Amino acid sequence: MKESFFNKHYNTPKWLKDKLSRRQLLKSAAGTSALAAIPFSSLTFAQKEDVESTLNAEPWLTLNAVLNHLLPNSEQGISATDIKATYYLYQLIHQQPTATDEINFIYKGVGWLNSYSQKKTDKVFIALTPTDKEEVLRDISRSTAGDNWISMLISNLYEAMLTPPSYGGNPNGIGWKWLEHQAGFPLPEAGERYFELPQRSKQAATASKHIIPTRNTFAGKPRTQGTTKA
């Protein structure tokens, strides 16, 4: 059977059950100081252009459309754009020690979503009206895989809203201000984030057999990325 959200043989994997049940922010079983994320405001002009070029192509256009549909502009509160949810997800995939299974599921979901959207409407997701987007997302949410995929993106929205800005989302603490939340201090800066701490680096060394090479967006060189994320 062709892979899709509606594959009857799909079962929620343990790593996803753990992520969706706890919804704890910024947790990982492995990390390394080589994985330092770079806040967008600190990038050079050329680096910003590279990131923006990536985010203005697929699969990021679809992911951005889904995130902004799940948390749209409104008079009631902040939006996915306000909390830089798409950039936070980009950082999660490209800079943080995120499990390859999680990354693959995010990307596969984009393909499955667009395939279903084209089958139902003859259009890809980003070309749909807000009403049609809502209908398509409600359709896929009735499947186990679709519900998992949407729930995972909602979890990432929460993270982007609540995380310290050094992780890529929540610029200037906009999420905290909206929630009237006082964050703990001191806040982590680049070089002090959870995956850069010495204990994490030691864990990464002992788990080296689980480390795979991945592309460094800014340097164009292979780097390491953890494959285990709790």
From TrEMBL:
The keyword Oxidoreductase applies. InterPro entries: Gluconate_2DH_su3 (IPR027056), TAT_signal (IPR006311). Coiled coil: none annotated. The keyword Ribonucleoprotein does not apply. Pfam families: Gluconate_2-dh3. Keywords: Oxidoreductase. GO terms for molecular function: gluconate 2-dehydrogenase (acceptor) activity. This is Gluconate 2-dehydrogenase gamma chain. It comes from Thalassotalea piscium.
